[in-house]
Write a structure and sequence with these properties.
15 strands, Quinone Oxidoreductase, Chain A, domain 1, 2 domains, alpha/beta, 7-stranded mixed β-sheet, Rossmann fold, 6-stranded parallel β-sheet
Length: 337
């Protein structure tokens, strides 16, 4: 059997590839050889930098990510590979099939049929690795519930922000405005047909925004991962508007300016995270229906166009260094195996 090689965060700004023996698949499980995995830069940079809150479960909804946040930690949740060996009891037609699974950045993994998603016909592995972030974008749109003719603002055009913008661009909105401090991401956003894409660090950002949205946005998404941006989101939102907070700030403190216009604004702040569905939807929606919608959106949007860098799996440390030190150069980074 081959060794399994897994990216492991061993301390702040330290990532290495560790090897371990990989057993044969037990009955009812399959062995998958990974072809590529996508780095989720927002969450993974918090882990890489040590900016995670201690004692918090890594992800109770993903069996491959057990335990709490502490070093050493294996992480990641966007792996695509091919089934190369079957345990007893599994049908032979699984062998060789391309599948997606929520797994850390690892060269091989064991899985059951319930924890893998066969790739839709004709979909590339590069497209398929966007499934988790597309599901997240679908969740954001569902939680924000944009209405016909609304003015919508999306702060942050990393990959989750771009996917959210891509979905919103298909709604009959009055305007759709985005913001990101990196030019390559603003350009990608403009290519989606948004009304405007602004630099939030440019002088007069809020004044420029008010010329575009004199009354403010009906719906604002905070997807930048920067705590200070939440104040921009509140400032951009009109009376009785809503702010969907999709960023995870980890252990970074958040200082909000709630003593001014916010106090009388009746703005709603909505916490949105993909591991659950909004309670008001659970009578009609479940995870399988949302995944089906995410697959359809991937086939329609083809987000592989936003892959900016590819690194060999063994060079994962270099990938995280790029994301940490030169974020303006990247949108989506993938590891190849």
């Amino acid at each position: 059997m081959p060794d399994r090689r897994t990216v492991t965060f061993v301390g702040p700004c330290q990532a290495e590839v560790r090897c371990e023996a990989l057993p044969a698949p037990p009955p009812g499980q399959m062995l998958v050889k990974t072809r590529l995995s996508a780095i989720s830069s927002g969450t993974e940079l918090l882990i890489y930098r040590g900016q995670f809150p201690g004692g918090l479960p890594v992800d109770e909804s993903i069996p491959a990510l057990p335990g709490d946040f502490h070093y050493p930690l294996c992480y990641g949740y966007a792996a695509v590979g091919n089934v190369v060996e079957l345990g007893a009891g599994l049908p032979e037609d699984w062998l060789g099939r391309p599948v997606f699974s929520f797994q850390p950045h690892t060269s091989h993994f064991l899985a059951t049929p319930a924890t893998v998603f066969p790739l839709p016909e004709g979909l590339s592995p590069e497209s398929a690795c966007f499934l988790p972030n597309m599901e997240t974008a679908v969740n954001f749109v569902q939680d924000g519930a944009p209405l016909l003719g609304e003015h919508v603002m999306v702060l942050g055009q990393g990959i989750v922000g771009l996917l959210t913008t891509a979905l919103l661009s298909q709604f009959p909105l009055q305007s759709l405005i985005t913001a990101d401090k990196y030019a390559c991401r603003r350009n990608a956003s403009l290519a989606l047909g948004v009304t405007a894409s602004l630099d939030p660090q440019a002088p007069g950002f809020r004044e420029h925004l008010r010329t575009l949205l004199p009354a403010g946005a009906d719906l604002t998404y905070e997807l930048s991962g920067a705590p200070a941006t939440l104040n921009d989101a509140i400032a951009a939102t009109m009376f009785s508007g809503r702010v969907v907070i999709g960023s995870w700030y980890g252990s970074k403190p958040v200082q909000l300016d709630l003593g001014g216009a916010f106090h009388r604004s009746r703005i709603r702040l909505i916490s949105s995270q993909v591991s659950s569905l909004a309670p008001e939807l659970t009578g009609r929606w479940d995870k399988s229906r949302r995944f089906a919608l995410a697959w359809q959106a991937i086939q329609r949007i083809r987000p592989e166009k936003w892959i900016t860098q590819r690194f060999p799996h063994e060079a994962a440390a270099q990938a995280y260094q790029l994301l940490d030190h030169s974020p303006s150069e990247s949108i989506q980074v993938i590891l190849e195996y």
